[in-house]
Structures are given as C-alpha cells and as structure tokens.
Design brief:
By secondary structure, this protein is an alpha/beta fold. The chain contains 13 helices and ten strands. The mean pLDDT is 90.
Length: 376
C-alpha cells in the first residue's frame, strides 16, 4: 500500500468513499424495496374495467397478443383498441376480432396530412370512448403473463386509490442488445417501483398501468404536455400520483412482456423519445433520479484514478467490493421478483456503460425539438 502526500489523491479518496456510500444508499433504500415488498391478500375486484391499447402498424402484434387480453379471466371488461393511422392490415385484423369478441371495441383514426399528432391524442380518444371508471393500459406489442392480469392489477382500487403501477418487462432474445434492453428496463423498474414504495411515485410504464377515468378528466388530462411525443405513461403520473393515492402490483401473474427493439437504432430512438419528458419531472424527482447514475460514474472514475496511483489500494478494493456485493445481492433479489433471468452476470458491464449511453442519448435530445418525435 502506498500512501503519499498528494492532497489531490487524498481528497479523491474521500470523494470515492462518499460516492460509494451514496451508491449503497440507493441500492438499500430504493432498489431493494421491490424485492422485499409484500403484497397482502386482496379480494378480487368486481369493478368493470376498460383496457385501452393504442396501435399503429401493429398487424402482427395484434394477431399474436390481442387474444391474450381479450380472453382474460375477468367478468365485466371491455378492450378498446385505437387503430391510429395504420397503413398495414391492422384494420382487417381488428375487423375479424370484432366478429369473434363481443368485448372488443375499435376506434379508427384516419391519416390527415393537415393534422399530425402523438400517442397522447390516440390515448385520449381511447379514454373518451371508455365506458368504465377503471382504465387499464398496455401496448399492442405487449402480452399479459397470465389470464389473471386484469384481476390482479385492478384489485388494488379502493376509495383512496387512483393509480396502480405494474411491471412490464421484455421478452428474452439472443444478442447483446436484448440483454441491455432488459437490463435497462429492470433498472428503470427498480427506480420507479422502489421510489413509489418509499412514497415518491414519479412514473409508470404504459405497458402496464391503471388509473381512474374521472381523475384523468378532473386533472385536465395531459395538460401542458400534450404536445410532447412521449410522456403518456409518466408525466400524468408525475403530476398527480402521491404516496396516499398510489398502489403497486408486480406479482408474476400481473406482469406483461413486450417485444424488444430489434436494432440499436430503434432502441436509441425510443430512449430519445422517452428522455424528452425527463426535464418536465418535479425538481425533487429529477434530483433523485440524477443522483444515482451521476454518483456511479464518479465512483468508477475515482476508482480507476486511485487504483492507477496505488493510493490506499487495499482500502479502495474493500470499498469497491462492499458496493459490488451490495449491488449483487439487491439485483439477485429483484431479478427473481421480476422474473428476469440471464442478466446477473451482465450487470457489472452494463453498470459501467449505461451512464455513458444515457448521457449521450440525453444530450442528443437537447439539440432537437421534442415536438418532432413521433410515437411510432
């Protein structure tokens, strides 16, 4: 062990220790919460439900996944598919399902060169068409993990609950990109589920989300953010969800799985679209969300510099190991809870790369008009 009189390295060591403590705090206070969260026995709900799906050019996904939604084991629900300017054979696919399923309703939006719109408009059309108070949202490329999806998601609604946040993961496929997409989705889930458990609900995912129709209109819907291409699944939650009116549901039977992006270009576009909304979060939420990846990046940089100079290197290694073991234990626990397999060994690699990737994506959004992004 080499201890020299370099004040810079001493300050850096203190800084490294502090960033490690910040990292451990995030993992133990926020990220471990979904792994420890216990769902009490809740009697099944009998409230009528409107499931809303917005679809644009989703012919194959509608064929593959829509029956799984329409055939849920729940009495008294309707499914509203908003066919938004599709140019494939979605219209005919939905027409065939209309003849087979009495609980399916379709709202068609035709393309108009004089009027361009984002997903929020299609979402609004679906909400207006809904006949029921409880609204449950998913995407056309999503599939419920079980026929109990609706029952589990809406069982939490009572006189105090306006929002229910669920988990939406991605299907496992071959390739590094798929692993990174699933890693990214899992980390986001640890953030929004963990913060909600700690009384700070800041977002949900449109792949698996429920709220009251009356609250949507009472709070003026998407309000000042209607022009943004994204935000249908987080800005409304960020503005209106609270510790007292929000419930969580992420038992395996309530999960959904989605088709992941097939190319990094498509994934990059999706992340850019989603990150345009982050700047509109509450200040508190932005600070909490920025704190973990920022401290993580600084933690790794200071670790490399200290190690390169052999400054207190045994102590540096011990601190690094404590943080790594904490992360491993939390990820193992949450991974089992969210049923995402095959990611554990990739976490150290993606843990280093993701702050850099997300920073590049976020900076790229600063130079473009967020209103120009299309939802499909």
């Amino acid at each position: 062990m080499i201890l020299n009189d370099n004040p810079f390295l001493l300050v850096l060591f203190i800084f490294f220790t502090l960033t490690a403590l910040v990292q451990i705090f995030y993992y133990l206070f926020y990220y471990m919460s979904p792994g420890l969260f216990k769902t009490s026995d809740i009697p099944p709900s009998k409230d009528p439900v409107s499931v809303i799906i917005c679809a644009r050019n989703e012919e194959e996904n509608l064929k593959n996944f829509l029956p799984k939604v329409l055939e849920q084991e729940y009495s008294g629900f309707e499914v509203i598919v908003v066919n938004d300017c599709s140019e494939d054979d979605s219209y005919n696919v939905l027409g065939e399902y209309l003849q087979k399923y009495s609980n399916l309703h379709v709202s068609n939006i035709t393309k108009d060169p004089k009027f361009t719109h984002n997903k929020k408009f299609a979402q609004f059309i679906g909400i207006k068409a809904a006949q029921n108070e409880i609204l449950l949202f998913t995407d056309a490329d999503c599939c419920p993990e079980s026929p109990k999806w609706i029952e589990n998601m809406v069982s939490h609604f009572d006189e105090k609950t306006d929002f229910v946040l669920g988990y939406g993961g991605y299907y496992a496929r071959k390739g590094l990109l798929n692993k990174y997409i699933r890693y990214d989705s899992m980390v986001i889930a640890m953030q929004y589920l963990g913060m909600a458990i700690r009384g700070i609900p800041y977002m949900g995912v449109g792949r698996n989300l429920a709220y009251r129709r009356s609250v949507f209109f009472e709070k003026k819907g998407f309000g000042n953010y209607s022009h943004l291409a994204s935000g249908d699944d987080d800005l409304f939650i960020n503005a209106n969800a609270s510790k007292t009116n929000t419930a969580l549901e992420f038992r395996k039977e309530s999960h959904t799985r989605s088709v992941p992006a097939s190319s990094f270009r498509n994934f990059f576009k999706q992340k850019k679209r989603h990150q345009t909304t982050a700047r509109h979060y509450k200040f508190r939420d932005k600070m909490i969300l920025a704190g973990e990846p920022a401290s993580r990046l600084l933690f790794y940089i200071s670790f490399v510099v200290l190690l390169a100079n052999l400054f207190l290197w045994p102590v540096v290694f011990i601190i690094f190991a404590i943080r790594a073991l904490t992360q491993f234990a939390v990820i193992y626990m949450v991974r089992k809870r969210l049923c995402d397999k095959g990611l554990l060994l990739w976490f150290p690699v993606f843990d280093v790369l993701s702050p850099i990737i997300n920073s590049v994506i976020y900076l790229s959004t600063r130079w473009q008009d967020p209103g120009k992004y299309q939802w499909k």
